[in-house]
Each structure stands twice: as structure tokens, then as C-alpha cells.
Design a protein that fits this description.
The structure holds two protein chains of two kinds.
Chain A lengths: L1 H29 L9 H29 L10 H34 L15 H30 L8 E8 L2 E6 L33 E3 L2 E4 L4 E7 L4 E5 L4 E5 L5 E5 L5 H4 L3 H17 L8 E5 L11 E7 L1 H10 L3 H4 L1
Parallel strand pairs in A: 1-5, 4-10
Antiparallel strand pairs in A: 1-2, 2-3, 5-8, 6-7, 6-9, 9-10
Chain B lengths: L4 H13 L5 H6 L4 H31 L6 H7 L10 H37 L7 H20 L30 H30 L12 H32 L10 E2 L2 E2 L7 H35 L6 H15 L14 H13 L1 H15 L8 H23 L2 H7 L3 H31 L5 H27 L19 H31 L64
Antiparallel strand pairs in B: 1-2
The chains are: A alpha+beta, B mainly alpha.
């Protein structure tokens, strides 16, 4: 019944709108105007709207930067993250500058050169010098960005650390993460999905010598200041290991191994003392309190960032960065895979 | 150029052959390019309504995840019990929204409509090179649309692995319900779509190269035609690669092959597949996927060039640079696909190469933006609704293009890849720009399609609501992305760190709903004007191009007598020495007048 009523109302609404249009058009006809022709009055109004919109766009942009700047990620907690953020700031500065240069010109021209009946446009078809300038200037700016970007990329992907990185495997499956630590030998034992069975959930070859000291964890623990080489595997579909606080991300692809290396520089305890982070936690807890939810304490996290199925939105793991001593104590508590089997 | 005398004889034949037109040959299985263009437009608009409506549904979920909405149960049935959306349905909605908007609206709806309508009319041809293939191209598209819509009704739901349908997720029905029958129908639909798109593109290329009227040198082509030509070439070269990717995926799904699958255990079941690689699929997909961005964008830019020049009453600034930048963008678009794959495990050196080529695209893009703005300079701007949308396009093209400089840089992409920052970027630069171009085209060429005028006042209202809500949706989205929020999350509630983004999400959703509703104004205006709008004069915008020399009433063969010859480029607006502020291309040069 409601459905039928809705249809009737909709029909009447369309009918009414059509009648209003009719009256509107007839009145235009009576004034001997053709509705579709653009008059000077239209040009004035629309031109002013354009200018107004341009101003509104820039003002709202500034407003958003000021209001929502604080929701952005806090400062990076990894060595290479600092380098990425520097490149980020430069690129962002450049594009914001360009935005504030080009948009006002566009909307101002739209306003300034709004049409008038007695006006004539200037016949101006090209200007080679001008076009050369705005080809070459972006080209130079981009050349700088490309060189800077490629250097950064190369440093991030091929870090030359003197210290041997600690090897940790991140194993992805629908919809959870498992970390496998390589143990005292710092070498992961061979593993394959075909070896999965019983308590051996990540398919480790237990006969393999290197696997003897491997252990699994449901939380990533990392000693601060030590490079860590993550190796990624997936059991079923593509996942993506996203660790935004460390400016790190890599896909986990079934059938192949991928990797990403970084050095954490700020412990979890330290980042919780950071002023920005504390502000963030306060704001979040105010929201959570109002909703009656459990209060939140800041943690580094690993998220899945490649669509992987129905619970993709809840595939996460905590990351704890701690001092070497705390880390060593944690390792002592862990049981090797061999022991659990 | 070859003599076109024989064309006139053909025109007479046409009159005899097609004298008896019944409903079927005129409206359904028409071989007339103008009717086919309109068929593409109406189908595209219908798909657009479906696609936009889906986005409104999932924006409800994102803004108010705990709330129950009766409307969700009305439309989604068992997928939204008591008005609470199911996570699988959320993923299905974003997947089909993406597929429909990218392929069905902005590829077929945009390029199909305006290439068909404008190519013969603007180059001075009686029709497309092959009217029959042209008809087939539409009917392949129509069939694929029907199949895509049908996939919404299968029991396990439509395809839900994202519009990029990366395997193994899309290959394994065990991985998610949408990868069952829904995915099969998606692949069948896209196969037909690609076939139709290829038939259309080949036709466009052949027509533009062979059937130009006397005097229509390539350097005198309107920029719309240049854009359609390059778009068609991009389509012919890249769509077959997507076809092969889709076929191999079908083999993996149905015949037990292992092109993309290796070492998989899903839902407790160990699969036999070995040796395949999902990364191979990603390469094949993005080899189309990136040129696809320009297949969508270039026609919109072509339309804008035409509309901005006409309504500024000025020549487009730097015609040759505009053509050059279209060609440069098209060339580069084939060697940048890897920027979608920086963090897939692809060799980092390849990442460097793709960063380099990707950032180069900013140069021709910047040239285009500056040339548009210079065209406005010292113009006599007539704010038709089409002109408003074109200026809107320049604004979004700049705003969205700039963030491309961030995302194209592999080092920076690491941290924003697959976050809402990307969603904001591509919606602004590709989605908004292209849809604005499409609206501009509809408002501008409506009189040519339906012999009547659209209502200007409603056009203004439609533009401002759309423009404001477009920025209202996608500008704040950058900030949720910078907070690290991944896309394709059904709910952010599992991560306390995203709690403070909820306000932004609510704002985005409200603008999305406003923007969606504003499209009703357009649809009303469109259909009202089609039947009741004031009769169109022959050349309502006082434009130079050839389509405005045809009679208002449609006829087979387009021109009653001889096809006009072309004597000048299409942009002689406000040229000194002429009485009017426009000089149609068919007007011979005056004595002593210098051509372009």
C-alpha cells in the first residue's frame, strides 16, 4: 500500500513539475524571450556565482586543513618514514601551491570575462612562447620531483643497513594475520600451504633444520632501532600488509613471497607520550565514552588493505615496538612451532 | 583528399532504400548513427542511475553503520535483513558501482553517444563507415548491460571482488559468495562489452580517416573528433588485453587451469593449482585499466574544448598544442600501468620506470589546463549550462590531476595506496571530469539529438547542486585517506583509531545524497525537454562546426543536398573582418583572408 502511494505521489510530483515548467515557459514567451538563450543578466549572475564558488572552494579548503589536519597520521615511526614524509611535504607543498594558483585564475577569468551583448572577444589563437613556457616549467618541476622521488624509492626499497635485519614472516589468510619469527638462527624454515595440517597452521616444514627455532605470534613485537625484514606470504587470496605508522605497505600474494624492510625508531611507550598522539587519543576517547565503548589506548597496527572478502574490514594485528630488553623477555616466553606440535 | 561526388549519389539511394521505416528499423535496430548515439545515451543514463543509486546506498552504510534503514531492506532484501547491510552486499555494491560507472556510463555512455552522434556530423559524412557494425556495437553493449543487471539478482549475489576483480578472490567461489555465478555473469557481460566496444572503435577510426568531407584536413578537425579518434585507437589497442585477461580468468574458474593461481588453501580446502601468478592478471588488467582512464577522459576533454571555445566566442587557444597533448597523453597512457602496482611485489626497479613515465603525463595535462584557461581570457563568455559544466571540468581536472603527482610517485604511493586518498583522486580527476564532460555534451548537443532545447534554468540549478556536492563528497575524502583509512571497508568501527573520521564520513554521505538527488533535476529536464521543450533553431549556440549546418529534422544521410565543403578550421570565433562573431567551417575564405 505504501509502495502504491509512493508511486502515486511521485507521479503527481512529476506532473506538477511539468505544469510549473509549462507556466514558466509560457511566461517567458509572453515576455518574448526564448528561455534557452543566455542573456546578459544570466551571464552576470552565473559569472558572480563562479567567483563566489572559487572563493568558497579555497576558503573551505583552508578550513578543512585547519579542522581536519589533526586526523592525519602522526609523525612516522620508522627511519625511512622520515624520508618519505619529507618528499611528501615537498610534493604536497607544490601541488597546494599550484591549486591556489590555478583555481583562482580559472574562476576569476570566468567572472571577469562574462559575456555582454555589446562586447567582442579577442581573437587570440596561440602564442608559442607562452605555450613553451608552460610546457617547460612543469617539465623542470617534475624532473626535480622525479629525481627526488626515485632516490627516495630506491633508498626505501634497497636499504643498506650495516646491521643484519631481523627476519619475520607475516602470514595472511582470510581474515587473520600470523607472525612467524625466525628464531635464533634468523632464518625461516621452508613452508608451503601443502604442509598445513593440525596445529601446523602456516605449513612449516618441521623436518627442515632452519624451522626448529621458528615460533608463531599473534602480535608483532619489534625491538626499537633494529632493522626488520618482513617476508609476506598469503594462504588464499591477495592481502596487503599495511603499517601506516611506519609508512610501510606490501601485498601478500599467494604463490610468491614478497618483502619489505624498515627500522622502527619510536617505541609504543614513547609514541603514547607524543603530544599529537595524546590529543588524538583524547578526542577518540571522548567519542568512545559518549557511545559507551571501551576506552582506547594508542597502538601501532597492521591492517589488511587489499579487498579479501567479507571480513576484510576487520583483519588486523597489533604491533608493539619495545626496547631490546623487553623484546628479549617476550621472546623467552614464546614456544617454538616444534614445541607446540 | 578524394572526391566525394559519389556520396551524393548514395544519398539518393538512401532516400529510396529507407523510405519505408517502421518502428523496428527506426528506433530499435537502427543503423543511423544519430539514433545509435541516442540509444547509447539512454542506456548509459539508465546504467548511471543504477550506479549512482548504489553509491547512495553504501554511503548510508559508511556514515551511519549502526543505524537500520528500511530502504536498504526494500532494495536489497535478504542482503539487508531488518535494514542492516550485509558486508558481502557492501562489497558487491562498490564493485558493481565501479564497473557500471567506469565501463557502462563513462565508456559506452560517453564515448558511444558522442562519437556516434558527432563523428559523421562534424567531419561531413552521410553516416558511419559501417552502419551495420555500428548497430551491432550498440546491441552488444545492450546485451552486456542486461547481463550485468541480471547478475544483481542471482542467489549468491553479484561480483564483489572490487571492479578490478583481482584473482584469486574473483576466481574462487569459496573465497566469497560473489565469486560464484555473479562473477561468471560479470565476465560474460564484460566479454560482450569489449566486443561491442571494439566494433564501435574500429568504425570510428575508419570513418574519421576515410570519410571526411572535401577540405576537412586533419588540421581542421574539431578537437572533439581528435579526442574521439585517439580514444578509439586506445580502445582498439587495449581492450583486447582485458579480454584475454578475462578469458584466462574464466579458464581458471571453469577448466581448472592455473594462469593466476598457485599454492592456495581456501576455506580449509587445498587446491591443486600450481605455478600461476595473480600479478600476471594485474599486469594484463592494468594494461587496459590505465588507458581506460583516458578512454574515459579524452572524449570529455574533447567536448570541453568545443564547448569552451564556442561559448567564450574565441578560438581554442593553442590548437596544435591541444592535439599534441592528446597524442602525448595517449602514448604515455600505454606505458604507465605499473603505477597501480608499486606495492604488489613487482621488482622495485620497474616501479622506478613507471614513476618516471607517470609523472611525465602531468606535462601535457598541464598544457591542456593552461590552454583552457587562456581560452577564457578576454573572451565573451556565454554561460550556457554546457559552459558551466565545462568550466567545472577544468576545475576538477586540475584538482584531481594534482594529487596524481603524489600517487604516481612510488615512494609516496606506499602509504596512501588503496586508501580513500586514491578514491578521492580518481573520482575527481576521472569520474567528475568525465561526467561533467558528458553533461556538457548533453546540454550542448541536445538540440541536435532531439530537435528541442533543454531548460536553461533547470540546467543552472542542476550544475550548481552537482558541482557543490561533487567537491563536498570528494574533497573531505582526501583527509580520511591521509588518516590511513583503507577503501572497501564495510565498517571502520573495528579500528578505534578511525573513530574520529565518522563526522567526515557523515558530511561526505550527506553531499553524496544531495548530489544523487540533484540528478533528478537533470533527468526531469531531459525527458521533459525531449517531448515538450521549445523547438530548436538550426544553430542555437552560433557554432562553427558542420553539425549545425544540417537541418533540425533528422534525415538519413544528414544533409539534404550536397555535403558542404570545408574551407577553414572550426575555431574562427570573433575573427576580425567578419560581421558575426562566428564563421562556420563551410564559409569560404574572403579575398585576402588568411586561414588558420
Amino acid at each position: 500500500m505504501t509502495g502504491l502511494l509512493m508511486v502515486v505521489v511521485l507521479f503527481l510530483a512529476v506532473f506538477a513539475a511539468a505544469q510549473i515548467m509549462r507556466i514558466y515557459e509560457l511566461s517567458a514567451k509572453a515576455r518574448q524571450e526564448r528561455e534557452y538563450e543566455v542573456t546578459d543578466k544570466d551571464n552576470n549572475t552565473q559569472g558572480r556565482y563562479m567567483l563566489l564558488f572559487g572563493i568558497g572552494l579555497l576558503v573551505s579548503f583552508v578550513w578543512m586543513m585547519m579542522t581536519w589536519g589533526e586526523v592525519m597520521l602522526p609523525k612516522p615511526s620508522s627511519l625511512h618514514g622520515v624520508e618519505i614524509d619529507r618528499l611528501w611535504d615537498i610534493s604536497m607543498g607544490l601541488i597546494i601551491f599550484m591549486f591556489f594558483l590555478v583555481q583562482p585564475v580559472l574562476f576569476y577569468f570566468a567572472y571577469k570575462y562574462r559575456g555582454r551583448k555589446d562586447n567582442q572577444a579577442t581573437y587570440y589563437e596561440h602564442n608559442n612562447r607562452l605555450e613553451f613556457i608552460w610546457t617547460i616549467v612543469p617539465a623542470i618541476a617534475l624532473a626535480v620531483l622525479i629525481i627526488y622521488g626515485l632516490t627516495t624509492w630506491s633508498n626505501v626499497m634497497n636499504p643498506d643497513s650495516e646491521e643484519e635485519p631481523m627476519v619475520v614472516e607475516l602470514y595472511a589468510q582470510q581474515f587473520k594475520w600470523t607472525a612467524r619469527y625466525s628464531g635464533a638462527d634468523n632464518t625461516l624454515g621452508f613452508a608451503n600451504v601443502r604442509l598445513i595440517g593440525g596445529a601446523n597452521t602456516v605449513g612449516v616444514d618441521t623436518t627442515h633444520a632452519n624451522s626448529a627455532d621458528d615460533f608463531l605470534a599473534t602480535e608483532i613485537h619489534l625491538p626499537v632501532g633494529r632493522p626488520v625484514l618482513f617476508k609476506f606470504r598469503s594462504q588464499d587470496v591477495i592481502h596487503s600488509a599495511y603499517m601506516p605508522h611506519f609508512r610501510a605497505q606490501m601485498n601478500c600474494v599467494p604463490g610468491m613471497e614478497t618483502h619489505f624492510q624498515f627500522t622502527p625508531t619510536v617505541t609504543t611507550a614513547e609514541i603514547r607520550q607524543d603530544a599529537d598522539v595524546q590529543g588524538k587519543v583524547e578526542r577518540i576517547n571522548a567519542i568512545r565514552q559518549a557511545k559507551g565503548l571501551e576506552l582506547y589506548n594508542y597502538d601501532y597496527i597492521l591492517l589488511c588493505n587489499k579487498i579479501c572478502g567479507s571480513a576484510h574490514y576487520n583483519m588486523q594485528m597489533n604491533i608493539v615496538v619495545e626496547t631490546q630488553a623487553e623484546y628479549d623477555a617476550w621472546v623467552k616466553e614464546q614456544k617454538t612451532i616444534a614445541e607446540t606440535l | 583528399m578524394a572526391s566525394h561526388d559519389h556520396d551524393n549519389d548514395h544519398a539518393h539511394d538512401h532516400d529510396h532504400e529507407h523510405h519505408v521505416e517502421n518502428f523496428w528499423t527506426k528506433y530499435i535496430f537502427s543503423q543511423d548513427h544519430k539514433m545509435i548515439g541516442k540509444q547509447f545515451l539512454i542506456t548509459g543514463m539508465f546504467m548511471g542511475i543504477v550506479g549512482v543509486f548504489m553509491s547512495m546506498l553504501f554511503r548510508l552504510q559508511l556514515a551511519w553503520p549502526d543505524q537500520k534503514f528500511a530502504i536498504l531492506e526494500t532494495f536489497l532484501g535478504k542482503w539487508a535483513p531488518e535494514g542492516q547491510m550485509d558486508p558481502n552486499m557492501y562489497l558487491a555494491l562498490v564493485t558493481i558501482h565501479g564497473t557500471i560507472m567506469v565501463f557502462f556510463v563513462l565508456t559506452a555512455g560517453l564515448s558511444g553517444t558522442f562519437s556516434n552522434l558527432l563523428i559523421p556530423l562534424q567531419i561531413g559524412a552521410r553516416d558511419m563507415a559501417s552502419g551495420f557494425l555500428n548497430m551491432l556495437s550498440y546491441w552488444f553493449f545492450a546485451a552486456s548491460s542486461v547481463i550485468m543487471l541480471a547478475s544483481l539478482f542471482v542467489e549468491t549475489g553479484p561480483a564483489s571482488g572490487g571492479w578490478t576483480i583481482y584473482p584469486p578472490l574473483s576466481a574462487l567461489p569459496q573465497a566469497m559468495p560473489g565469486s560464484g555465478t555473479g562473477m561468471t555473469l560479470w565476465l560474460v557481460s564484460m566479454t560482450l562489452f569489449i566486443a561491442g566496444s571494439l566494433l564501435g572503435s574500429l568504425n570510428y577510426i575508419v570513418t574519421i580517416i576515410n570519410l571526411r568531407t572535401k577540405g576537412m584536413a586533419m588540421t581542421r578537425l574539431p578537437l572533439t573528433i581528435w579526442a574521439f579518434l585517439v580514444t578509439a585507437i586506445l580502445g582498439v589497442l587495449s581492450f583486447p588485453v582485458l579480454l584475454s585477461a578475462a578469458l584466462l580468468l574464466m579458464f581458471d574458474r571453469m577448466l581448472g587451469t592455473s594462469f593466476y593461481l598457485s599454492d592456495i588453501m581456501v576455506a580449509g580446502e587445498l587446491l591443486h593449482n600450481e605455478g600461476g601468478s595473480p600479478v600476471l592478471y594485474e599486469h594484463l588488467f592494468w594494461f587496459l585499466g590505465h588507458p581506460e582512464v583516458y578512454i574515459i577522459l579524452l572524449p570529455a576533454l574533447g567536448i570541453t574544448s568545443e564547448v569552451i571555445a564556442t561559448n567564450s566566442r574565441k578560438p581554442i587557444f593553442g590548437y596544435r598544442a591541444m592535439v599534441g597533448s592528446i597524442l602525448a597523453i595517449a602514448f604515455l597512457s600505454f606505458i604507465v600501468w605499473g603505477h597501480h602496482m608499486f606495492i604488489t611485489g613487482m621488482n622495485p626497479f620497474l616501479g622506478s620506470v613507471f614513476t618516471f613515465t607517470t609523472l611525465l603525463i602531468a606535462i601535457p595535462s598541464a598544457v591542456k589546463a593552461f590552454n583552457y584557461i587562456t581560452t577564457l581570457w578576454k573572451g565573451n563568455i556565454q554561460f550556457t549550462p554546457a559552459m558551466l559544466f565545462s568550466i567545472g571540468l577544468v576545475s576538477t581536472f586540475v584538482a584531481g590531476g594534482l594529487t596524481g603527482i603524489i600517487l604516481g610517485d612510488s615512494a609516496l604511493d606506499i602509504n596512501v595506496h588503496d586508501t580513500y586518498f586514491v578514491v578521492a583522486h580518481f573520482h575527481i580527476v576521472m569520474g567528475l571530469s568525465a561526467i561533467f564532460g558528458m553533461f556538457a555534451g548533453v546540454y550542448h548537443w541536445f538540440p541536435k539529438m532531439y530537435r528541442r532545447m533543454m531548460n536553461k534554468g533547470l540546467g543552472y540549478l542542476h550544475f550548481w547542486l552537482t558541482f557543490i556536492s561533487a567537491y563536498g563528497v570528494f574533497f573531505p575524502m582526501h583527509f580520511t585517506g591521509l588518516a590511513g583509512l583503507p577503501r572497501r571497508y564495510y565498517s571502520n568501527a573495528e579500528f578505534p583509531i578511525f573513530d574520529e573520521l565518522q563526522d567526515i564520513n557523515v558530511i561526505i554521505s550527506m553531499f553524496a545524497i544531495l548530489g544523487g538527488i540533484a540528478q533528478l533535476i537533470f533527468i526531469f529536464n531531459f525527458f521533459y525537454s525531449m517531448w515538450r521543450g521549445p523547438k530548436a533553431p538550426q544553430n542555437p549556440w552560433r557554432s562553427n562546426t558542420l553539425e549545425w549546418t544540417t537541418p533540425v529534422e533528422h534525415m538519413h544521410g544528414n544533409w539534404p543536398g550536397e555535403i558542404p565543403s570545408v574551407h577553414r578550421w572550426p575555431y574562427d570565433y570573433s575573427k576580425p573582418g567578419h560581421d558575426e562573431d562566428f564563421v562556420p567551417q563551410s564559409t569560404p575564405l574572403k579575398e585576402g583572408e588568411v586561414g588558420h
